[in-house]
Every structure is written in structure tokens, then in C-alpha cells.
Design brief:
The chain is an alpha/beta fold. Helices cover 44% and strands 14% of the residues. It folds into two domains: 3-264, 3-Layer(aba) Sandwich (Rossmann fold), CATH 3.40.50; 267-298. The chain has helices at residues 3-24, 31-35, 37-51, 68-76, 103-110, 156-168, 187-196, 199-204, 217-227, 256-264, 274-297; strands at residues 58-62, 83-88, 117-119, 134-142, 146-147, 152-153, 170-180, 213-216. Strands 3-2-1-4-7-8 form a six-stranded mixed sheet, with helices on both faces. It has a two-stranded antiparallel ribbon with strand order 5-6. Strand 5 (146-147) and strand 6 form a beta hairpin. The longest helix is centred in the last third of the chain and has 24 residues, at 274-297. The chain binds S-adenosylmethionine.
């Protein structure tokens, strides 16, 4: 079945689930997602198209809400190797656990996402229980950085801790696609994310570069290394993915070259740069000229 035909039937099913849920959830937490579903479903599909997950990849979503994105991921991929996992705090703004009267709860049940979305509350400076290494970490309209329990928004350090945690759970070619709820971000934090984001990818996907951020693991690693906040807790290569324990025994030895580089502060990657070799050649020529002139004086 072609992707567009598949998508038509997936969208139809999502609209139907939302319509049925809206009957009993015309108001309350998350009701806008089921009373006016099309705009949200289309946004999640756009997001899915932007990351275009490979059929054997692993996707991790933070705060899925009704679960449109998770369902799209599962339904558009029939490869058994594909995995979607989500976490959500599953509480409302009064600290009450979602119950039958919450539309998120109802939608997860309808879309068969109960097993895929785990209960987990993200708190500042606390590691997320990822459980695995992922190819994509996704968080749309994320509100975890505005803590309902303490009524405080995260500080810059909390975002850096979160980004480091993501780095450690992204596969080598992995990426983070994130849109924070605008109220969670100060200008300083916004510019941190903007500086890390691949703006071309964002705009090519039809998203606004100032609020949506697409951050590759490579870019994140460079940034955090420069900042000096990581001692490269090396993540397994994507072809060797294995569950990561949160017990601290999850550190895997980096390859020998990386260990030598960090031990002696050498960056071997300069040998891949053309400019290094140009400089080297110029050095040899100059050395020969000077040497020859010295000899001819004698
Ligand atoms: C505004 S909804 C976004 C839903 C969906 N991602 C979207 O794009 O429409 C925010 C979601 O994040 C969850 N959430 C909020 N704070 C959280 C936290 N501290 N830890 C985990 N999930 C959280 C909420 O329960 C909700 O499902």
C-alpha cells in the first residue's frame, strides 16, 4: 500500500477515535485535541514526515498527550523492528492522576497505546528513564519544563542537564526534535536551542525555526563537550543497541581512539581536514627553501 493511501486510512481512524471521544470530553484537560482534531493530527503527521523515521528505527516521545504521533508512527510502520515508546506524567494541573474522565486516558485506550506510553514525571536535574537508546527523541508542545508541582520554570542548567540526558540516549546518528511550550523559555534558553538547531531541516519541514528545534546528536555532543559538561559517557553504536540500565552501570568504554584523544587532549579529526595538509605542505616547502638557502651561504 502506498504511503498516501495508508495515511488516508490512518487519518480517518484517528478522526473517528477523536469524534467518539469528544462526545464525553467536550471540555476539560486536552479536550481541544478531540473537539478540533484535524489541525492537531495534521501537525503530528508533518512532524512524522520531518523526522521520517526509518522502518527499523526507535522513536521516543515525551508528553504524547492524546497520542496522535505515537499512533501515526505505529500505523505507518509495519516493520516489526520499528519501536515507538512514550512517557507522560499522566496527571492534570491539579496533580490528579488521569482517570476515565480524561480524554487523554480514553484516547490511549482507543488507539491501543496503553502499553507504549509509560507513566513518568520529568523533573529538573533528574534523569529520564529512557530504558533504551533511540534514533529520535521527540517532544511537541512540551510543558515539562514548567513544573506544575512547584509552579516554576526550568533554569538554563536544567535544560543543559536534560540535553545531556538526551545525548546519552541518542544513537550515533540520532536527533532530538523539540518544541517547548513558549511560556517555559526565557530568551537565554531560547537562544541556546536556536543555536543548536538545524534551521534548514526545520524550515524544510514547514515549521517555524524560532520555536521548533531539530538538534542532531553530533551537534549536541560538540556543544556539550565545548561547554565542558560531559565526560563522554559513550552511547552504544546504533547497530548494537541494548537496554540501558539507570543503575549507573551503563557506561560503555569509548573506542581506543576517543580515549587517547581525551586522555592527551589531541583531536585526530584535524587530519581529515584539507587545510591541515595544506599547512603541512607549506611547512615542508618553507623548511626546504630555508635549509637550501642556509647551505648555499656556506
Ligand atoms: C500540551 S501537551 C502536548 C501533547 C502533544 N505532544 C502535542 O503536541 O499536542 C503536554 C503533555 O506533556 C505532559 N507533561 C507535562 N509535564 C510533564 C512532565 N513533567 N513529565 C512528563 N510529562 C509531562 C502532559 O501530561 C501532556 O500530555
Amino acid at each position: 500500500m502506498s504511503d498516501s493511501i495508508k495515511w488516508k486510512s490512518v487519518k480517518k481512524l484517528l478522526l473517528q477515535a477523536a469524534e467518539e471521544t469528544a462526545i464525553n470530553h467536550a471540555s476539560g484537560l486536552g479536550s481541544k485535541y478531540v473537539t478540533n482534531p484535524e489541525v492537531y493530527i495534521d501537525k503530528q503527521k508533518k512532524m512524522y514526515d520531518l523526522i521520517a523515521p526509518a522502518s527499523d528505527s526507535k522513536v521516543f516521545e515525551i508528553g504524547p498527550g492524546v497520542g496522535y504521533f505515537g499512533y501515526i508512527c505505529e500505523a505507518m510502520n509495519d516493520n516489526i523492528l520499528f519501536e515507538y515508546h512514550g512517557i507522560d506524567c499522566m496527571i492534570d494541573s491539579h496533580n490528579q492522576r488521569w482517570k476515565e474522565d480524561c480524554c487523554y486516558y480514553e484516547m490511549h485506550k482507543k488507539l491501543g497505546l496503553n502499553e507504549k506510553i509509560r507513566e513518568f514525571f520529568i523533573s529538573p536535574q533528574e534523569k529520564i528513564e529512557f530504558g533504551l537508546v533511540f534514533d529520535y527523541i521527540v517532544a511537541m508542545q512540551a510543558s515539562f519544563a514548567a513544573n506544575w508541582k512547584t509552579n516554576q520554570t526550568w533554569e538554563l542548567n536544567d535544560h543543559i542537564f536534560f540535553l545531556q540526558d538526551c545525548l546519552e540516549h541518542l544513537s550515533e546518528h540520532g536527533s532530538l526534535f523539540i518544541q517547548h511550550n513558549v511560556n517555559c523559555l526565557t530568551d537565554e534558553i531560547k537562544s541556546l536551542y536556536q543555536g543548536l538547531s538545524d534551521k534548514e531541516t526545520i524550515s524544510s519541514g514547514g515549521f517555524k525555526e524560532t520555536i521548533f528545534f531539530y538538534i542532531t546528536r553530533k551537534r549536541l555532543k560538540e556543544y556539550l563537550e565545548n561547554l565542558g559538561v560531559i565526560q563522554i559517557r559513550y552511547v552504544l553504536p546504533s547497530d548494537m543497541q541494548a537496554p540501558i540500565s539507570t543503575e549507573g552501570g551503563d557506561e560503555v568504554k569509548p573506542p581506543l581512539v576517543e580515549r587517547i584523544q581525551s586522555r592527551f587532549g589531541i583531536d585526530f579529526s584535524v587530519f581529515k581536514e584539507a587545510v591541515t595538509w595544506k599547512g603541512f605542505l607549506i611547512g615542508i616547502v618553507m623548511f626546504s627553501v630555508i635549509g637550501y638557502s642556509g647551505l648555499s651561504i656556506i
